[in-house]
């Protein structure tokens, strides 16, 4: 069994958020979990432990339990379907990732206004399509059936990789490697769940969400992509204002069969 890293705690408002740091690589990698996690239990099971060790082989891996899960404090009162994690992310980033943020991984509800640090314009849709094509082609050359397991979105220099993974699924780690090294990609996030947890109705849930968003002028957002993984909705796109992003998230969360929402919707500059 892999050695369990020391669990430490960061403050987010009045709550204490549990986190662990492992690995010795040169890249800072933040792994944000799904709706259920436990930092220490993950090391007790062989395939999650091997997956985390592989990530730590090329990075300093930073993981945490979201508020209300695992070893982190539980907030009082009703738990919302989409938990606000901005404070937690900010505290961890301040402690570990400034002045350089190398890579982010899955699960946070992110509404990010991306600023080009060199003053250049943000990548347009053509550049995003080129990045996605490059990543998919590189993966297919190594693993011909990989795109039946992984879904890859590219938007505004952000790559989101989602999928329900079989045990010890090496292409998932390879996908992160390839995406992080692809020219024009500034950030990579993932939403991974074990394959056993994948719901057979994901496609039907996705269809209902698309119909709900398209049927309301307040949530209609051309160019916004989505997929559903084991009941978790993954949203990727660009909108003009935060209010529209919030309406899209709320609409998706209200659809029957949705367990949680991971939003990577960004605001246009």
Secondary structure layout:
Elements: E1 7-12, E2 15-22, E3 27-31, H1 46-57, E4 59-64, H2 86-96, E5 103-104, H3 125-142, E6 150-155, E7 158-165, H4 170-181, E8 187-194, H5 202-214, E9 225-229, E10 232-239, H6 242-253, E11 260-267
Parallel strand pairs: 3-4, 3-5, 7-8, 10-11
Antiparallel strand pairs: 1-2, 2-4, 6-7, 9-10
Task: Provide the descriptors you would attach to this structure in a database record.
Alpha-Beta Plaits, alpha/beta, 6 helices, Rossmann fold, Histidine-containing Protein, Chain: A, 5-stranded mixed beta sheet, 269 residues, 3-stranded mixed beta sheet
CATH homologous superfamily classification of the largest domain: Alpha/Beta hydrolase fold, catalytic domain
Whole-angstrom Rg: 18 Å
CATH topology descriptor of the largest domain: Rossmann fold
Q: Mean pLDDT, nearest integer?
A: 77
Secondary-structure content class: alpha/beta
Distance between the termini: 47 Å
How would you sum up the major sheet? 5 strands, mixed
The proportion of strand residues reads 25-35%
Helix fraction? 25-40%
CATH architecture of the largest domain: 3-Layer(aba) Sandwich
Count, helices: 6
What strand order characterises the main sheet?
1-2-4-3-5
Number-wise, the strands total 11
Q: How are helices and strands ordered from N to C?
A: EEEHEHEHEEHEHEEHE
């Amino acid at each position: 069994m892999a050695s369990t890293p020391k669990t430490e705690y960061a403050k987010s408002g009045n709550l204490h958020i549990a986190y662990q740091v492992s690995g010795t690589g040169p890249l800072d990698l933040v792994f944000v979990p799904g709706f259920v996690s436990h930092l220490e239990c993950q090391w007790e099971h062989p395939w999650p432990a091997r997956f985390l060790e592989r990530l730590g082989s090329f990075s300093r891996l930073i993981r945490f339990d979201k508020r209300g899960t695992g070893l982190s404090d539980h907030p009082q009162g009703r738990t919302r379907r989409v938990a606000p994690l901005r404070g937690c992310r900010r505290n961890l980033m301040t402690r570990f990732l400034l002045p350089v943020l190398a890579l982010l991984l899955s699960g946070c509800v992110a509404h990010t206004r991306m600023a080009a640090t060199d003053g250049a314009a943000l990548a347009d849709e053509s550049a995003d399509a080129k990045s996605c094509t490059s990543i998919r082609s590189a993966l297919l050359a190594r693993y011909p059936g990989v795109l039946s397991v992984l879904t890859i979105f590219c938007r505004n220099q952000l790559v989101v990789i989602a999928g329900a993974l079989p045990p010890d699924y090496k292409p998932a780690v390879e996908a992160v490697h390839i995406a992080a090294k692809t020219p024009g990609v500034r950030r990579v996030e993932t939403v991974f769940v074990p394959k056993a947890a994948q719901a057979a109705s994901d496609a039907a849930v996705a269809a209902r969400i698309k119909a709900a968003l398209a049927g309301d002028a307040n949530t209609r957002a051309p160019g916004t992509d989505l997929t559903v993984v084991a009941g978790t909705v993954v949203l990727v796109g660009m909108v003009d204002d935060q209010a529209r992003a919030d309406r899209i998230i709320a609409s998706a969360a209200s659809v029957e069969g949705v367990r949680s929402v991971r939003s990577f919707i960004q605001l246009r500059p």
